[in-house]
Design a protein that fits this description.
Blueprint (H helix, E strand, L loop, with lengths): L1 H12 L10 E2 L2 E2 L25 E4 L5 H6 L5 E6 L4 H8 L2 H5 L5 E6 L10 H5 L4 H12 L5 E6 L20 H18 L3 E7 L10 H4 L8 E7 L8 H8 L2 E2 L2 E2 L2 H10 L3 E8 L7 H4 L2 H13 L4 E6 L16 H13 L2
Parallel strand pairs: 3-4, 3-12, 4-5, 5-6, 6-7, 7-8, 8-11, 11-12
Antiparallel strand pairs: 1-2, 9-10
Helix pairs in contact: 1-7, 3-6, 6-7, 12-13
Length: about 350
């Protein structure tokens, strides 16, 4: 019964323009959702930092990053990817509520498919998990934050080796897109104030995947996002930063500037939910990169009107953190200077 209610709500959100495409798959009829543009809420949470864009951190940055820069954090990014849908519902109804109190904008990195349902794009596309996503949306609707942005199925473009919802082959793309659309619409059916973000890893090395084919559609995407860690290679000189800024790879955006242009071409703002230094075994001295930190600051400053938010990933001890305590003293000093003075 709950699934039927959710399905009816999704039909209403699609404003009567739903078309059905029946595909035979062992007797299973799959529905393809073609929705009319939705009336979506913009991210409009206050910028308490007094910076011209929403600037925050992962949960590991509270409160130390605020103390470091002497500015309030505008956003917090958390991650929810437990093994089951039932646990996803439980988590969004419990500890997430505490995290939501820390900043005006709550950014939730939410699994599109949990581990127990890895690769089940067809079932998801048929609406099998709509009821779970609707309940998750209802839970997030009650979160004590002034705005909620869901990074739904982040980094699907790096494949199933990294995420249970990762896309590996071209023949998965159709069901992936319909799965994403179903999940996004169900989230909004449960939580109308929830914004939904389609976010990717910066570089897609799988030539079988097409950005145009994987994009779920402007009518269901509120924010386009990307992670942009200082890796592959480190942007430790201005020449390197400039070289990669507008670069593409296999037909996908790669550089930060290229991702910004992609977002703007769809009339969306860019969310950068994960960025930061990355000690990948090269040693802290090599990973300490103030040039990258300074250029990230200047990118956010110069494109503030097109940035939905940014959050520094201050977690994973030894890999990324600027505080409390750090193995990246030059970068920490540069972050403190840039974000503290607001040059």
């Amino acid at each position: 019964m709950l699934r039927k209610i959710v399905s009816n709500t999704i039909d209403r959100l699609a404003a009567g323009s739903r078309a059905r495409r029946l595909v035979s798959a062992g007797g299973l009829a799959l529905a393809a959702l073609v929705a009319a543009p939705l009336a979506r809420a913009d991210i409009s949470t206050p910028m308490l930092s007094s910076l011209p864009w929403r600037s925050g951190a992962s949960d590991g940055g509270f409160p130390c990053l605020s103390d470091l820069r002497h500015r309030t954090l505008d956003a917090i990014t958390i991650f929810i990817a437990p093994p089951s849908f039932a646990q996803m519902v439980q988590n969004t109804g419990s500890w997430v509520q505490q995290s939501a109190r820390k900043a005006p904008l709550l950014v939730v990195s939410l699994a599109l498919l949990p581990k127990n349902n890895a690769g089940q794009f067809a079932a998801c596309a048929a609406g099998s998990f709509d009821a779970y996503f609707s309940q998750i949306g209802a839970n997030l609707q009650k979160a004590p934050a002034q705005g909620v942005d869901v990074r739904l199925g982040w980094e699907a473009n790096i494949g199933s080796d990294s995420h249970a919802w990762g896309v590996d082959t071209a023949d998965q793309v159709g069901d992936y897109v319909q799965c994403w659309r179903h999940a996004a619409l169900a989230l909004k059916a449960g939580g109308p104030r929830v914004n939904v973000e389609w976010t990717s890893a910066k570089k897609t090395q799988n030539k079988a995947l097409s950005l145009a084919a994987m994009y779920p559609g402007d009518d269901v995407v509120d924010v386009i996002g990307v992670h942009y860690y200082d890796s592959g290679p480190e942007k430790n000189t201005q020449v390197l930063w400039d070289k990669y800024y507008g670069l593409s790879f296999n037909g996908w955006p790669w550089g930060l500037g290229a991702w910004l242009q992609f977002a703007k071409s769809h009339g969306k703002k860019l969310g950068v939910g994960e960025w930061g230094l990355w000690d990948r075994g090269q040693g802290a001295a090599m990973a300490d990169d103030p040039v990258y930190i300074d250029n990230m600051y200047r990118f956010f400053r110069d494109n503030a009107g097109d940035i939905a938010y940014e959050t520094y990933l201050n977690g994973m001890t030894g890999l990324h953190p600027l505080c409390p305590g750090t193995t990246f003293p030059k970068s920490t000093a540069q972050y403190q200077l840039d974000w503290g003075l607001g040059q």
